[in-house]
């Protein structure tokens, strides 16, 4: 009996520990594939198909200064387009918003429950 109690307590503590540990990273499942931060728009399009909605939300400028072989410093300005792709994965799932900067996935988040039939590839 004592072995059974220790076994149950051990299992319970393991379960609580797993639930309390933070997730290392986010990934969005599309069919049999996964997309995650750092992936290109092309990979997301191949894995997930066309989004339900796509919009350009901003242009981000960044300045960089570099020293070349000569002693003169060169400064440049880079502009990155910020886009959001929305996937409505249906009434039994969520609406997912994928944010891209300069063509790379930088954030994945949910925006409430999905509606109607799933428009997500493989779901």
Q: What is the chain-wise order of helices and strands?
A: HEEHEEEE
List low-pLDDT spans. 15-24
Mean pLDDT: 80
Shape: extended
Task: Please give the number of β-strands.
Answer: 6
Structural class: alpha+beta
Helix tally equals 2
Taking the sheet with the most strands, its summary is: 4 strands, antiparallel
Give the proportion of residues in helices. 10-25%
Domains (count): 1
First and last CA, distance: 46 Å
Strand content: over 45%
Strand arrangement, major sheet:
3-4-5-6
Work out the radius of gyration.
22 Å
Provide structural commentary.
This protein has 123 residues and is α+β, with helices and mostly antiparallel strands. It has one domain (26-113). Helices cover 22% and strands 46% of the residues. It has helices at 2-20, 41-48; strands spanning 27-30, 33-36, 53-67, 73-88, 94-101, 104-113. It is extended, with a radius of gyration of 22 Å. The relative contact order is 0.19. Residues 15-24 have low confidence and may be disordered.
What tags apply to this protein structure?
extended, 123 residues, alpha+beta, 46% strand, two-stranded antiparallel ribbon
Can you summarize this structure?
This protein has helices at residues 2-20, 41-48; strands spanning 27-30, 33-36, 53-67, 73-88, 94-101, 104-113.
List the helices and strands and how they pair.
Blueprint: H1 2-20, E1 27-30, E2 33-36, H2 41-48, E3 53-67, E4 73-88, E5 94-101, E6 104-113
Antiparallel strand pairs: 1-2, 3-4, 4-5, 5-6
């Amino acid at each position: 009996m004592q072995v059974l109690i220790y076994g149950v307590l051990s299992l319970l503590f393991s379960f609580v520990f797993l639930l309390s540990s933070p997730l290392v990273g986010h990934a969005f499942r599309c069919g049999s594939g996964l997309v995650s931060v750092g992936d290109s728009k092309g990979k997301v399009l191949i894995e997930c198909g066309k989004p339900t909605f796509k919009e350009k939300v901003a242009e981000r400028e960044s300045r960089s200064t570099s020293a070349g072989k000569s002693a003169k410093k060169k400064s440049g300005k880079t502009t990155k387009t910020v886009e959001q792709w929305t996937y409505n994965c249906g009434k039994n799932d969520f609406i997912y918003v994928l944010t891209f900067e300069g063509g790379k996935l930088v954030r994945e988040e949910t925006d409430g429950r999905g509606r109607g039939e799933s428009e997500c590839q493989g779901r």
